Each structure stands twice: as structure tokens, then as C-alpha cells.
């Protein structure tokens, strides 16, 4: 494309806007990193200066003092188990919902869940969890995560399955495959694009969840990464460098996953949003 | 559930088997959803009519008392007002900024910047809250910066001043989510064929005119999604308030969700808390229906 005069100014404006926002994003992040590696008194005196000395040992101390290993393990268990349930239960439920019109009422039942804020379910759920003795259990939280996210997952899968040609399925059934085998062997692999959208949409909200674990998983040994950091920040609020180091360690897994799977992430976010 | 059909249904055997297999596909998801979401949601309407302390499993039915009390509860109305101010400003600013960023970063040369803009949405609330508390602290980063460039007169107690605290939280929210709004707008922009833009450009249509009459109508679906997502998300705001201000100073940043949480878990008024949640749901429902209707109608016309 040739650069006509009238095209010049929008381009310069674009560059300015992008650079300005980049600075606004980078400054807090950079200050967080430099704050973590500086000595505490240096941090207070010269927050903007380049660190005189890099105190990497702060990260080691934060890692052990905040018990981040335990936090990451617990978060990993909850997130991965919920994702597995969401993908398998969601895809399988969406299949008849997409293929048979007499299941439409159930589809709307799930769909209504998208409109309802979790806060409406929160207190009765607390009561239910107490009655079932599920507070401070992994199961309890995994079931809640699954139940809360299922409507959107089912919505995405149902929409996608409707767009798939039935011929393959019918051919497989004629060949004598059972319905379950046919679904998991023929249809499920075709759902890969939605499956990756589902995983990406939910991995962020599950890994970063604060509210649900705050309510249902308060026990120290079961703390997730987010709750470990929360209590660490509360305890050590005078030791800013330690707190910042712990926060950085806590966001690294998510940022690593994102940088590795950038393309999928961007597609997943956009795909999920546009279809939702 | 239909297990083995009786013999007289033998003729319909295939039909019953089909219903049975379909049920097996749906059942696990339906059970978990029904027990851990649908049932609590439905029972909340009953619980909002009771007095319940959260400890004692017994509920005392008190009719509409909670709602009558709610109507005259000035703390509720304050939380209501704060929540709406928050949601309205977040929705407007986040969408304007997201759209501007999408238009600015739509050129491929900015691909690396788009990745950078998606880092804040990945941060957990507690990470976000910690960073921004440090930014906003009386001797924090923003005030040091202002002092450094000679604008000492503009330093503020960003989170401690009741007049400012809510706006500081709004800014934090926008900082986090603008990149996400941008990506959704970008997806909309990329669905517009280049030919259309080029044709208009050759015809001598200016940039603003092209945006107004070509780009914007075509990204209307992305606009709808972004507005609905940011509106509903910010009406439910809890984490960053709970982490950064606990609803304070005073009740300057109390939102409906922090109020529900406080009523229930601090004051042990679970029945009343549920009534607040029901009121909040009613408002969100009406708003999202109106919004969807209004915005999708424009899409069709677009």
C-alpha cells in the first residue's frame, strides 16, 4: 500500500498510542521486578533507579517462606482436575444437545447458568457444602468450579458440534461402532479447536480464582497459590521486596504458559468471546 | 432414567435405547450442574425470605422482611451506587480504550505489543492488588513520580481518600483488562476484508468516515460482547476491592458483592446477604437483557 498523505497521521497516532500504553503497562511490572531484587533500604530510597546489586536470594526466601511449592501443587490439582471434568463432561453433554431437538429444554437450562452471577448461588452453596461436609475438600471446590463453568463450555461445544457434518458419525455407526466409542473416537477429536478454547478460557479464571477458594478452602494445608500469596502479603506487608518476589513467582507459571501458547491464547480468547 | 425397558415396549426398543444412551451422555454434567449451581441458585430465592445465621442449619421463615429492610438500608444503597458508578465507568473507559488500542495496534508490526498488552489480564487479583497498592501508596510510585517531575502539588492519597479510592480502583481494573478488550476488538477488525477498506480509501473516504461508516458497524458484534462482558464482570467486582481497600475508607468502595460477603461472613446475616444477592441478580438480569436487546438490534441494522 502506498503511503498517501492522509494515511500518515493515523499511522503516527497509532505508534504514539501503542507506545504510550506499552509504557503504562511496563512501568508497574518493571518496578515490581526491580523492587524484588533490590535491597529493602535501596527500594525505599530509590524506587526508580537500576538495582545496585541483584539480590536473587530474595526469591529463594519468598519461595520457601510463602510455601509456594504447596500452593502451586494445590492450584495445579484443582485447575487440572476441573479442566478435565469440564472438557469431558461438557463435550459429552453437548453431543445429544446439539444433535437432538428434544433435548433443547435441557440446553436452555444450562444456558440460563451463563446469565446468573455466582454471587446468587454463593450463600446457599455455602450451606450445601457444609451439609455435605465438602468445605476444605478438593472435591467440593472441583465440583463448584465445574458447575460454574459448565454452561459456557456446553454452549461452545454445542455450537461447534452443530456445524459438523453427520456423515462420519453415521458411517461409523453403520460399521458397528457403539455410540460412546463413536463419539470419543470420531467426534471428540474433531472438537479440538473448541477444546483448546475451553481450556484457555478456563485456565486463567481457575488458576487465578480467589473468591471461591476464599470461601470453601480456608484450611492452611489446602491453600492454593492465590491464598498462599494472600496470607503471605498480609503477614509480611512491611517486607516489600519479599512480597514482590513472591508475587512474581506466583505469576510466572501463567505467563510462561501464555508465552508458549500465545497464538492459541489469542485465538481462544477471541473465539470464546465472539461465540459467547 | 430409563433402564431396561419392559417387554411390551419391545417394538420401541431402539427408541428407548437411544434415549438411554443420550441420557448417559448428558447425565454427569447435568448432575453436577444441578446440584452445585442450579439448586443453590433456586434455593437462594427461598433463603432470602428467611433469617439464617449461617451456623445453625435451621432457617426461620420471615417473609419479605429482608427486602423491606433492604429498601431502607442506606449501606445497601451506597454499595449499589458505588457498584453502578464502578461498572459504568469501567465499561465506558475499558471499551473506548480497548477499541482505540485495537485500531492503533491493528498493523502487524505491533504484534509484539499485543502480546505485552495481554500480560495484565493474566495477573491474579492478588498480584494485581499488591502491585497497585504499592503504586498508590502515599509514599508509593505514583506520588514519587509526580514529585520527581515537579508536580508535588498533585500527589494524593490514592486509596486512602474516600473521594478518590473508587476511581483508583477503576483505573486498576482498566489497566488489567484493556488488553483483553483490545484482543476481542482486533478479532472483529480482522474479520473485515481488506478490500472494503482499500476500496473506500481509493474512493477518497477519510479515516474517520471509514471508521464511522465501515469499520464500526462491522465490529458491532465485538462491541456487544465487550460491553456485556465488562459490564457484567464489573457489576460482580469483588477481588480487587477485598484485596486493596476492603470496601474502605469508610464505605467509600463498598460494592454489592463485598456487602453480601460482609453481611454473611462478618455479621452472620446469611438470610439478609442472600436477599442482597437476589436484588443484585434482578438488576443484572434486567440490565443485560436491555443491553443485549439494544445492542444486537443495532448490529442487525449496522
Q: Class by helix and strand content of chain B?
A: mainly alpha
Q: Major beta sheet of chain A, specifics? A: none
Assign the CATH superfamily of the largest domain in chain B: MetI-like
Mean pLDDT of chain B: 86
Strand proportion of chain B: under 5%
- How many DSSP H or I helices of chain A? 14
Order of helices and strands of chain A: HHHHHHHHHHHHHH
Helical amount of chain B: over 70%
Largest sheet of chain B: 2 strands, antiparallel
CATH topology of the largest domain in chain B: MetI-like fold
Kindly report the oligomeric state of this protein: heterodimer
Q: Which stretches of chain B are low in confidence, meaning pLDDT under 50 for 5 or more residues running?
A: none
Keywords:
heterodimer, A: 276 residues, mainly alpha, MetI-like fold, 2 domains, 14 helices, 0% strand, globular, B: 302 residues, two-stranded antiparallel ribbon, 72% helix
Overview of the molecule:
Chain A has 2 domains: 5-55, no CATH class; 61-275, MetI-like fold, CATH 1.10.3720.10. With 276 residues, chain A is mostly helical. In chain A, helix 3 (57-65) packs across helix 13 (240-260), helix 7 packs antiparallel against helix 10 (192-207) and helix 10 (192-207) crosses helix 14 (262-275). Chain A is 79% helix and 0% strand. Chain A contains 14 helices and no strands. Chain A is globular. Chain B has 302 residues and is mostly helical. Chain B has 14 helices and 2 strands; from the N terminus they run H-E-E-H-H-H-H-H-H-H-H-H-H-H-H-H. In chain B, helix 9 runs antiparallel to helix 10 (207-218). The longest helix of chain B has 35 residues, at 13-47. Chain B is globular, with a radius of gyration of 25 Å. The chains are: A mainly alpha (276), B mainly alpha (302).
